[in-house]
Amino acid sequence: MLQVEGLTMNFGGFTAVNKCSFSIGAGTITGLVGPNGAGKTTLFNLIAGAFQPTSGKIRFQGKDVTKLSTDQLFHQGLVRTFQIPHEFHRLSALENLMMVPPAQKGETLLSNWLQFGAVKAQEKEVRARAWETLEFLELTQVAFERAGNLSGGQKKLLELGRTMMTDAKLVLLDEPAAGVNRTLLRKLEEKIEILNKERGFTFMLIEHDMEMIEKLCSPVICMAEGSVLIEGDFQTVRSDPRVLEAYLGEVAYGETA
Amino acid sequence: MELIGLANYAVYMAIFIGIYAILALGLNIQWGFTGLFNAGIAGFFAVGAYVSAILTSADVANRIGGFDLPIVVGWIGAMVAAGLIAWPIGKICLRFRSDYLAIATIGIAEIIRLVVKSEGWMTGGARGVNNVPRPFGDLEYFQSQLAYMLMVFLILGIVYFLVERQIHAPWGRMMRAIRDNEAAAAAMGKNIERRRLEAFIFGAAIMGLGGALFAHFNRSITPEAVDPMVATFLIWIMLILGGSGNNRGAILGVAVVWIIWSMSEMITDQLPQEYAIKAKYMRVFIIGLMLQLVLRFRPEGILPEPQYTDETNKEKVQRGSPASDAPTT
Prior knowledge:
- The complex is a heterodimer.
- Chain A is α/β, with parallel strands linked by helices.
- Helix content of chain A is 39%, strand content 23%.
- Chain A has helices at 40-47, 70-76, 93-98, 109-114, 116-137, 152-164, 182-199, 210-216, 234-239, 241-247, and strands at residues 2-11, 14-24, 29-33, 55-60, 63-64, 78-80, 170-174, 202-206, 220-224, 227-232.
- In chain B, helix 1 packs across helix 11 (247-270) and helix 10 (228-242) crosses helix 11 (247-270).
- Chain B has helices at residues 2-33, 41-56, 71-93, 98-118, 120-123, 141-168, 170-180, 182-187, 192-218, 228-242, 247-270, 273-297, 314-318.
- The model of chain B is unreliable at 313-329 (pLDDT under 50).
- Chain B is mainly alpha-helical.
- Chain B has a domain at 8-227.
- The two termini of chain B are 41 Å apart.
- The chains are: A alpha/beta, B mainly alpha.
- The A-B interface holds A 48, 50, 69-71, 74-75, 79-82, 86-92, 94-96, 98-100, 102, 104-109, 112-113, 116, 119, 123, 126, 141, 143-146, 149, 162, 166 and B 162, 165-166, 169-171, 173-174, 176-177, 179-181, 183-192, 198, 202, 245, 305, 307-309, 313, 315-316, 319, 321, 323.
């Protein structure tokens, strides 16, 4: 589904991502691990079109998408979330989800003035779908709360919820568990699994919580200093001496709140 | 006699409140809903005022004009022209982040003012465009003022309705999302650049209409009337004070600030000459102080941005949500 070939990103003299190559199969949940500063988030930003790579190619569903911007990639079915929650803080939780569906009729000025009936009818559908998503995430009690007032964990769920409002094919999750308490974490894992199995989303997720990686991800890719160290199932990656070395001096701790 | 004078003054003030409210609504689209720091309101105001004046006035030597078109055509022309000018400006400047956009738009408004002042063949130079027809202009003074006021209010009502419609629609939601978090809005497939340009042009067109109403009311437009002190910064203060992101707040802010502004003029005019000049700066100071106080104690304005989800959000209050803030509606 996604092929990355020799992806390199230079920031000035610093090479954050160095000749990364891997591919992701449809229907999988791929984990991306590695010590801090390994270039995981930069790699995500490259795939998601936030940055243009210095060199290398990204192919998505057989098409070269290296040059596409974030919003164009969205329409191809590649959706991302952020490490630090990027909620629309003055919008309610419900609105945060309602803004997502692409090509809404009411997004054009003229149809709001001339065809308000049609816009309203579509709004009703979008709203119902957003409400369903909130129910799935068990967030209905804060539906009308400003997203900025939600807790860190709730914002994370909301980020996940936004990806559910689309017909995404590949979802990039950047540390979905960071700052989420244990109970909510299990819930989050559950949701990701359901989405993978029932909605057919392919996931790629960066995570430091090894329990979550172990539970969800296969294969696991380990990065260090900008390059891919090893790819394989969790046990292989965990016991590989190079991986241990990369983490040495660092503790691979689960970030719990 | 005294009463008539008072009524005259009230109507005169109300007309200005109506015109500035239209400008504030335009700014609210740009700043309140989209987060675009346009500090060049006066520029779009000027474009609207001059275009409408030139299109509708009679022929004069040494200046283009004499189109003598109906006033409504002038207004539409004003909106189209302000929108058209906004297009290349937005195309270039909207790439800047907020404060840079402010600097760029101040510069552009200044360029427009200088062009208006120096290109006499087009704008009449320092003398401006005179004999601009005024709707209901042949009525008796008071009736004419009253009729103009009602007309301005009617137009304000229409503009308010058109803008509110957008804000409650998915378009407004998308704009507020872009304002709150650009990166996330892009990640959700919204074309930020195009949408911001849309809001910029939409707001500018409304500002152009405000300018046109101003020109027709005064029967003339001169470069002095395009004063950034009033037409840009006072509008900003009105919007911030009233509540950006809330159209009713914007209109309320205009009324409050304009009443204080013109009342203070009335008071300072009573002073002896040598103090009157100094007092003029006092007025500016008072407005600045008001802005400071609002930003310190109520940064969201008198009427803060409401929840736009829709009317059913009342159930939140009924369920007794833990949010402790008192209902502000």
